[in-house]
Amino acid sequence: MVPLRPTERIDDLLTYDLKIIQSEEVFSFSMDAVLLGRFCSLPPKGRVIDLCTGNGVVPLLLSTRTKADIWGVEIQERLADMAVRNALLNDLGERLHMIQGDLKTIHGTLGHGQFDAVTVNPPYLPVPNGEQNVNEHFAAARHEIHCNLEDVIAACAKLVKAGGKVAMVHRATRLVDIISLMRRYRLEPKRIRYVHARAGEEAMMVLIEGMKDGKPEIRTLPPLIVYDENQEYCKELKEIYYGGRASLEFS
Predict the structure, then answer these.
(1) Residue 236 host element (H or E)
(2) CB neighbours (10 Å) of residue 188?
(3) Quick check: pTM over 0.85?
């Protein structure tokens, strides 16, 4: 039996019978992570790494799509511990390797160019002036306290092998910065998909994938509209959340 800490609970991931340990005291996973887990390209085998892994939700989701070994890197000790226990909770301890570490230096431990694919759901917001969120876990999840966008993309570029894929979810307003930095670090953008809350509204998120040393060419996929005219999740999201093995692949 996997132990739970005070305030922790076990939630259902609603797909493949996966469970996840969460707590109201730390940032819980969001739709962003779920979409990233379905959007990214994965090898059938090999090595995959998820940066800013939090409690390990993305590696859990990736484990349903590939037989590859999957690493997760999280700088916060409490979340890294939850990620380790989430792997054990789902009997994935042999394939999911959760590490407490700093993405800016983790290549020193795991090596340059050792991964077929990298995923990352980084903090979205610059560090604010003045008072910050009093909860350190929420603050680190939302704001670029431990790493900024360039740190993230530089880390991805060091870890992925030539021809490997790097997938990210971020705010759509940061797209120009993302593309500019990806190209600076030889990650050529290849696929992009905008996520809109409702039809007729501007994009709130963007899913983007690049290839290390790839040739210039990008595919813009159809937009994902989260809510339909009845203010319910669209068919695609229902398939992702409730469809199990029938869930949609974003390719």
Answers:
(1) helix 235-242
(2) 17
(3) yes
